[in-house]
Write a structure and sequence with these properties.
single chain, alpha/beta, Rossmann fold, Arc Repressor Mutant, subunit A, six-stranded mixed β-sheet, 17 strands, 49% helix, 16% strand, globular
């Protein structure tokens, strides 16, 4: 490019940080040592722990003993996280007890003490977390690791539980060969591959293990993974209970007498999964492949029944979505704030995907976003957005065993941004309209603050209020409104009333090597070196100078 570039290099050495490891006998001894370090230092302190539950337990314990401490973890509500971080940054609390979720964008110069109450799972993470101390070069800061022999055992047990053996990868490779016996390319889910490999429910975290095995096979040139092929079959459950579902199935002309019991079993499982998801505040969705596996039915049979229940109105399609605002009576308008926060992050992500592909880890993408001024960015939020963008066909995403992602757009940047802006305007209108409905309901002393509406009603409202919006009345379709509502649901601004996705998330896999090829020890070498490095890093952290 005919440019003269000048090199600026600096050392990673932090001479004002002093590292120490303290061996403790048990949990009680560990807490007493932590309290002693906190009392001696009397300065802004970060205590890192490995479990979200422990952040609250340890913060409460320290506060009870006279040291005001606040928790911070990735599963906390966004408002609580921001409030606790601000309190620490503004010296309203001297101690923050956090998981590794705390740190990105935190540039507090006077942190004089960082204590790892639990050992980090890697040397890289430890150095990054300990590096939150002594941002002011003139401040001498202390970095401690508290550990017992049991801590090391826990790390090694966890590593062994997640480690893939060569035989497991060979089993997955055999499954892929069986599934591609008649054609080199196939669309299938991780669960289907696991079952073909002979794995049962005793295998923990099946999806992650299958995807890790596929990444290892791809790296060694045995196969190529294409774009994921997600398909949403329904967006909600429209019946109130099983009695209503059974009556409507029995009365339907779409189900033969021999199919009624099968349909009843499927809707019963869906209703049950919906209630479980609601109780656990987890993803409100059911996978077609898991449903077939649980009920002992073929995937084709499940899809056929789901599609007919959607035609019958037992399951929802886009025309039947209804929703309510989470904070309908809240003067702070949290849903609106959340929408704008996610919109800012999404626009950043879309603008940073080049015409080819973006190859990056979620952690690095989050760090880049924070450094570029998106201060509220979180890894969890990025994964939420990438999941939505992939399901709705904005992007394609692949992830390898080391959790490095390859993200590419499915359209040019201009078209993608135009679609994003259209959805954002619809989302803004929907949220604002719902706030108005909530306010009107409150004036009427409505006991139920759930503001329900149909997607058709929302579409008509947009058309009647904004005739020139998006270039004309005919430009906005029902599918655009559905996409906006799904987006608001995924980011947490709205809760879909009855919203429950029934989907099939297939992977596109193309076999390259012939059917006689066998995954060999030499192919496994690189992955095995990765596991050895992880074990070595735990040892290094635990064996720093005492």
């Amino acid at each position: 490019m005919d440019l003269n570039l000048e090199l600026f290099a600096s050392t990673a050495s932090r001479t004002n940080l002093h590292y120490s490891v303290i061996h403790v006998e048990n949990d009680n001894d560990k807490y007493l040592k932590l309290r002693e370090l906190v009392a001696e230092a009397d300065c802004p302190t970060i205590v890192y722990v490995s479990r979200t539950k422990r952040t609250k337990e340890l913060a409460a314990k320290l506060t009870r003993d006279g040291y005001k401490a606040l928790p911070f973890n990735g599963k906390m509500e966004a408002d609580e996280k921001i409030a606790n971080q601000d309190a620490f940054m503004n010296d309203q609390a001297h101690i923050i007890v956090a998981t590794s979720a705390f740190g990105m964008g935190v540039d507090k110069k006077d942190v004089g003490l960082v204590v790892h109450y639990d050992i980090s799972d890697s040397l890289e993470n430890y150095v990054q977390e300990a590096g939150r101390a002594g941002r002011d070069p003139g401040l001498n800061a202390r970095c401690y690791v508290l550990y017992s022999d049991n801590d090391l055992d826990k790390h090694f047990i966890l590593l062994n539980q997640t480690k893939l053996s060569i035989s497991e990868i060979q089993q997955v490779w055999k499954a892929v060969k069986d599934l591609t016996k008649h054609r080199m390319k196939v669309n299938c889910s991780a669960l289907e591959i696991a079952r073909q490999a002979g794995w049962d429910d005793s295998v923990s975290d099946i999806e992650t293990r299958v995807r890790t095995a596929l990444a290892a096979l791809e790296q060694s040139g045995y196969l190529v993974r294409g774009n994921n092929v997600p398909h949403v079959y329904a967006t909600g459950i429209m019946v109130k209970n099983m009695d209503e579902a059974r009556e409507r199935i029995a009365a339907s002309l779409l189900f033969g007498s021999d199919e009624i019991e099968k349909a009843v079993r499927i809707i019963k499982s869906l209703i049950s999964q919906k209630h479980i998801a609601k109780a656990q505040d987890s993803e409100a969705e059911s996978r077609i492949d898991y449903l077939a596996d649980i009920l002992g039915l073929s995937k084709r049979d499940v899809i056929s029944v789901v599609e007919r229940m959607r035609q019958e109105g037992i399951l929802a399609d886009s025309k039947d979505i209804s929703a309510y605002l989470q904070d309908a009576g809240d003067s702070e308008r949290k849903s609106q704030i959340l929408l704008e926060r996610f919109a800012k992050l999404e626009q950043y992500i879309l603008n940073h995907i080049p015409d080819g592909a973006l190859r990056i880890s979620c952690k690095q993408l989050n760090e880049n976003a924070v450094n570029d001024g998106i201060n509220t960015s979180k890894e969890k939020d990025i994964r939420t957005l990438l999941y939505f963008l992939t399901v709705k066909g904005y992007t394609r995403k692949k992830e390898d065993a080391a959790r490095n992602m390859e993200i590419s757009r499915q359209a040019d940047l201009e078209s993608t941004i135009r679609r994003f802006e259209k959805r954002l305007e619809i989302s803004r209108f929907a949220v604002e309209w719902l706030y108005k409905l909530a306010f009107d309901a409150e004036k009427k002393n409505a006991l139920d603050k759930a503001i329900q509406f149909s997607v058709v009603e929302l579409l008509n409202r947009i058309k009647s209020n904004f005739q020139s919006l998006f270039g004309g009345l005919d430009d906005i379709q029902l599918e655009d409104v559905e996409e906006a509502l799904l987006y608001l649901s995924k980011i947490g601004s709205l809760k879909l009333e009855g919203g429950f996705l029934v989907l099939y998330n297939a992977m596109n896999i193309q076999r390259i090597k012939d059917n006689k090829s066998r995954y060999k020890q030499d192919d496994y070498r690189m992955l095995n070196e990765f596991y050895k490095l992880k074990i070595q890093q735990v040892h290094i952290v635990a064996n720093m100078p005492i």
